[in-house]
Amino acid sequence: MARTIELADGVYRIATDNYRLNTGLILGLEKALVIDTGAGPRQATEIYDEVRRITRLPLIVVNTHAHFERFMGNDVFHAMGAEEIWAHPRTARAIEKYGEAQRLYVETLEPEMAHHSGPGTDIVVPDRLIASDHIEGVTFTPIDLGSRTATLMYFGAAHTDGDVLVGVEDVLFTGSVVEEGVDPAFSDAYPERWVETLRAVTELQRYRIYVPGNGEPVDRDYVVRMADTIEQAVHSIRSSALDANAEATTAAMFKLSFSPGATRILLDRLTKLDALSTDDPDDDQEINPVTSGFTGPITLGQPGS
Question: In what order do the strands lie in the sheet with 139-144?
Fold first, then answer.
């Protein structure tokens, strides 16, 4: 059952049980913006019904990144008349290229989606891309909802390479750039740049409430602590890697703030990113992760890799 709280006038957090998903809803006078659509027709219908309990306005959708629980409900909203689906160019490209491969993740909770069986189970790729002269440039894209503007923001790679945040009034919907109640998911992440993105987010003084991709809303101090914790973990791992003692990295893992499993994923991700990077600061590998091998296993639909 969907659980909804109003965070500001006409700004809602809709929580659904599967994947502890948070969906955002922002009302204008002419349109409403829905942030993340769920993992398939079951969850998407639950979200859509809750949205329609609140408003009958025409809908616009934004997918915060290219993980299955954020976009696999797009077909339901598209069928119900959603006029536009927004995302970062990398997110749209990843959904188009790897969306089918991610069906395996939803076998238990969304079997129709997993087997592409029945209505609402197509992979619908975002058709509106946030403004960006350069794919790594910080961007602010206004969406006019009628006497209210929601702003789609991109600060750089973080949880994935295409994370979009959505701000309105004093509320910021962060997607999985901010997480509450669980360790950060590092499989597809760019940990050091994630820290930079979190620092940039906390410099936006207007926002008081941060809605994570999963879990309960948090404040600025929580986001600062999250940045500090990731930064300290990366520093500890890199310091251990420089130690001549071959067991140093393994020992250090259990001194971090994350679970051993999350720390292991972080270590593996840093190792992969380091292996793929080059010594040439002008090389374009890092700004073209899809073609350079930087795309992570969750996006690729390869959970065991």
Answer: 139-144, 149-154, 165-168, 171-173, 209-211
Q: Under DSSP, is residue 62 helix (H, G, I), strand (E, B) or coil?
A: strand
Q: How far apart are CA 146 and CA 270, in angstroms?
A: 44
Strand-pairing partners, residue 171, are: 168, 209
Work out the angle between the directed axes of helices 191-202 and 220-241 (0-180°, nearest 10): 150
Q: Tens of pLDDT along 78-122? A: 999 998 999 999 999 999 999 999 999 999 999 999 999 999 999
Structure tokens given for 23: 């969906």
Contact 40, 109 (CB under 8 A): yes
For residue 285, the number of C-alpha atoms closer than 13 Å in the C-beta half-sphere is: 13
Radius of gyration of the chain (CA): 19
Q: What is the DSSP string of 76-100?
A: HHHHTT--EEEE-HHHHHHHHHHTG
HEC letters along 207-225: CCEEECCECCCECHHHHHH
The model carries a pTM of 0.92
- Give 176's DSSP letter: G
Torsion of CA 255, 177, 103, 116, to 10 degrees: 160
CATH 3.30.365.10 fits 3-300, yes or no: no
Task: List Cα–Cα distances, 94 to 113, 182, 211, 228, in angstroms.
Answer: 18, 25, 24, 29
Three-state secondary structure along 5-29? EEEECCEEEEEECHHHEEEEEEECC
| CA distances in angstroms from 112 to 108, 121, 162, 279, listed in the order given | 10, 7, 27, 46
Q: What is the pLDDT of residues 188-206, one digit of tens each?
A: 999 999 999 999 999 999 9
Cβ atoms of 151 and 142 within 8 Å: the answer is yes
